[in-house]
Amino acid sequence: MRPLTETETRAVFGKLERYIGENIQLLVDRPDGTYCFRLHRDRVYYLSERLLKVAASVPRESLVAPGTCFGKFTKTQKFRLSVTALDFLAPYAKGFGVAAKSTQECRKVDPMAIVVFHQADVGEYVRNEDTLT
Q1: How high is the pLDDT of residue 22?
Q2: 98 and 118 in contact (C-beta within 8 Å)?
Q3: 19 near 93, Cβ under 8 Å?
Q4: pLDDT tens digits, residue range 98-133?
Q5: 70 with 12: CB under 8 angstroms?
Q6: pTM beyond 0.85
Q7: Of the N and C termini of the chain, which has fewer Cβ atoms inside 10 Å?
Q8: CA distance 33 to 106
Q9: β-bridge pairing 33-40 and 2-3
Q10: Of 32, 34, 35, 47, which is closest to residue 1 (Cα–Cα)?
């Protein structure tokens, strides 16, 4: 397990910026402690510094997953985001649906009214990650 190089960091943060914008800083400096990204076997893990200190005492061969897997680097060094990262990205995401009515209108509409034009599922979010802006 090692820190990300400059090009790896640029690739990871570039991908994260597409989904959560400038909120990347909120992933690192959280109220419950400081978190970091580490590379282990071509996978990028997101873990707290406290857990990082504990994982440093475990041999590399024995270490399976030091934290939450955010994604992996392909053989061509492209970063692919993993589904396991969505729980951490969802609070800061730019949005998953397009609302047709406001919140106040939604409370009063009849059951057959259209409230959301397009609601993305988790699978669609991952499948279309290359085309999201």
Answers
A1: 85
A2: yes
A3: yes
A4: 556 677 777 787 777 766 655 555 555 556 666 765
A5: yes
A6: no
A7: C
A8: 38
A9: antiparallel
A10: 47
